Amino acid sequence: MDGGLIPPRAATTPAAPRLARTVLAGCLLLVVALLAGVLLGPARVTPAGLAATLAEALGWAPLPAQHASNAAILGVVRAPRVLLAAMLGAGLAVAGAVMQGLFRNPLADPGLIGVSAGAALAAVGAIVLGPALFGSRAGGLGLWLLPMAAFAGGLGATVVIARLATRGGVTGVSTLLLAGVAVNALCGALTGLLVFMADDRQVRDITFWMLGSLAGARWVHLPVAATLVLLPALAMLALARPLNALTLGEREAFHLGLRVESTKRLAVALAAVAVSAGVALAGMIGFVGLVVPHLVRLMLGADHRLLLPGSALLGASLMVLADLAARSLAAPAELPVGVVTALIGAPFFLWLLRNRVAAS
Amino acid sequence: MIEACGLTVAAGGRELLRGVSLSVRPGEVVAVIGPNGAGKSTLLRSLAGELRAPAGMVRFAGQPITALRPAELARRRAVVSQAVELAFPMRADEVVRLGRLPWYGTAEAARDAEAVENGLERAGVLHLRDRAYATLSGGERQRVQLARALAQIEGATRPAAILLDEPTASLDAAHRVAMLRGLRGLAADGLAILIILHDLNEAGYVADRVGVLGQGRLVALGPPAEVLRAGTMRQIFGVAFREAPGGGLLPDFPCRTR
Question: Which superfamily does CATH assign the domain made up of A25-359 to?
Fold first, then answer.
């Protein structure tokens, strides 16, 4: 895998100031995206309405009557939705960057370790078999049955693949990749079988879940996302130096003092938790984990100390904007956000590939 | 500095090394030669601490090498592997800077920039520092890897060691001479150096002692003048050698029929 997609950036600024500037620029972008996310959309919220709602939430001032509808829109749907989008975007993008570094492959994606397919199988299982297994109680479990199944399915598939690829304490990265392909195919087939068994309404539920959506976001989801998506994403930032060492290869990383096997286990575990939880909360949202790290590498180079925080902030911002597009473009109907990310992400990725062909 | 004592390594039901005893002392260059598949790289990987459980014992600075933490080991020994390729594009100086990773969080990290500079200079690649690694030739990459290894052991507690796997393989004649002369200079500074070579004359030039591996066994070990004899080499490699006028050994190519 020599070369990768992007020529290195000729920059000689020392790392620490570059990191500070990257984080600052990323935070500014995220703030702009968050503001756009809460203010814009089919129902407009005015900046004054936002300010009044915030002031009331913080206990500074009572809510003026003319902002009541703004406050309702913000409080009930938009604020949790935008915050969830940001956390999921950050988690997916960092997990993608970490997987690319770990597999030493610019085309790697969290889906490769089985997360998405395993989660999809379990979620479809919950939709199709839930009513049969839990009877009328499945309706009450509705809010949590599907996400819990998806989370467990994502982690389960990852564990199976990691076990298959590990022999004598050593995880073969190419075996991991191949095992991922095979387990993904198997999960896909079983999912297809379940779809075959499903009734019409279930097929519609499955389709929408597969395409990904943040429409169901509620405040109750945020602590879950903070714990299972944001926290692993922040923990993955600590993998920057180990991943830099792995750029040279696994043997060379050991020569540089890295505990290669424990690094691999930690990286796969953190990425699997973050992505499984993401899929559980919002369904399948593709291309964020693949494309965002590439964009950041294009801007900042391959140093993971910049790449990981940069991916987190850009991923969060782009996901908020993609969700804004998803609920605005076809208003009052909503596009699935996974459709938006794929519609933007796939052509962009082809453009990157094309450039690589041209450069080599 | 590094000692192998009765080192036996097996993989896939085949013995790659059998009862190899070899030491590299501070200030000494030991060259290892031998036919392809004789176990040279396996020996280097064992001495680097990479193969974790060999039956025989490898000791580093008096301690079992398996008892040392990878980071501790990395601050005292560097390895130059063959043909290192990057997963993602980087500049040459960024690659050299990766050599400073073991020093992260230590007081020595304050000298990272200086160590990178010195490594680039000693390996003769200062002029390549801003080039993309992927655009360098094989020989240039090899020298950048040497610079990375030098940056890695700069500031190391002495004695320190550097292990090189065929570092001259893709170099032109001038750079071969320069690299081997540079290694002699490092040994004079007190480094222990183990180097795998194919060219017997390079081994004769650079080494204080030459070890010969054949089918996983160390069949000869001693000063170049004793080991590098036409008779011994013929036994090991299975082709005739002749002594070149003025010293050195050359494989005796059969006459071509035209």
Answer: ABC transporter involved in vitamin B12 uptake, BtuC (1.10.3470.10)
